[in-house]
Design goal:
Structural class: alpha/beta
Largest sheet: 6 strands, parallel
Strand order of the largest sheet: 3-2-1-4-5-6
Number of strands: 11
Length: 306
């Protein structure tokens, strides 16, 4: 029986590329694994997989009765609705430990680094398994994506070391240029429906009993989003109503200016000022130096909601 490997809902490049890499590693260690995704991949991920000739994983959202490995999350809000009916064999992640529980012991690699692919690179090394060139390529791109070309507050020396080693396998000399290629693809938003952009990198969280959604769009220049910003603001208001959330926040991250404009729809906007010391005006606020949802946004909001 195949074991499935997957990450969070609204899959991003790390969640997809790390699922593919972990499935390759586990299969070579004798556990036949198949990578899948909980939704359609985004344009950046499609670019990465195409560049290195790697197949796009099938979409699968139901796992009752299956054996699974999880990557890039252990939060129930980001896992399949029937995850309690699956047997979780292991978790590989770089976020805080979530609220998933298991009935059996499991393999767990959860490290404070910028990307799940960084952890999987160390797993390949630990088990003495050679990384195929194509897999090394997508892992490298996952690291560049998740660390925002090493600019994010989540980036560590381990991420840089893993990226350098993977780049040597691939024969990629200019990581800055490769990273900008990826972010230009990610920045191409013209003609894309607002809901698709809002959900492109979106996660729900439980914060002291409040359901809070946080999405993020990373672009090379914030002006790219000027034409669609009003549509994005209107759509997060619709999404909040549909989900019954306390709040939905959308980070519009400018990777060159190294900061984010946050669009805000909330039952209580004061949580934003509590979290960041900046008062929102007209449903938005500029947050200088804020680029990481994981390290700079979620922890601040969790304290504000506590």
């Amino acid at each position: 029986m195949a074991v499935f490997v997957f990450g969070h809902k609204n899959p991003d490049s790390d969640t997809v590329c790390s699922a593919i890499a972990l499935a390759d590693l586990k299969s070579k260690l004798g556990v036949e694994c198949t990578p899948v995704a909980q939704g359609e991949i985004n344009p950046e991920t499609a670019f990465i997989l195409d560049k290195f000739g790697v197949d796009v994983p099938e979409v699968k959202t139901a796992f009752a009765g299956e054996k699974v490995f999880l990557v890039d999350t252990s939060d129930l809000a980001q896992l399949p609705d029937d995850i309690a009916q699956a047997e979780v064999l292991g978790v590989v992640d770089h976020h805080k430990l979530g609220d998933l529980t298991t009935s059996n012991p499991l393999e767990c690699w959860i490290w404070p680094v910028g990307c799940s692919a960084t952890v999987i690179k160390s797993m390949y090394d630990f088990f003495g398994i050679e990384i195929p060139k194509s897999i090394a390529g997508i892992m490298l791109c996952a690291i560049l994506s998740d660390t925002v070309i090493f600019k994010s507050a989540t980036c560590t020396d381990k991420d840089k070391e893993a990226a350098d080693a993977l780049a040597k396998i691939v024969g990629e000399a200019d990581l800055q240029t490769l990273g900008m290629e990826m972010f230009k693809v990610k920045s191409a938003v013209e003609g894309t429906p607002a809901r698709e952009l809002v959900l492109r990198d979106y996660k729900d969280f439980d914060m002291s009993g409040n359901k809070v959604g946080i999405g993020q769009l990373e672009v090379v220049d914030l002006s790219i989003l000027d034409a669609c910003k009003a549509d994005l603001a209107a759509d997060i208001a619709k999404l909040k109503a549909e989900k019954g959330n306390h709040s939905v926040f959308l980070l519009l991250t400018d990777i060159m200016k190294e900061g984010s404009e946050m669009l805000i729809v909330s039952d209580d906007e004061s949580v934003v000022e509590k979290a960041f010391g900046a008062k929102p005006e007209a449903g938005k606020v500029w947050l200088d130096g804020i680029m990481s949802r994981k390290k700079q946004v979620v922890p601040n909001f969790e304290k504000a909601f506590a």
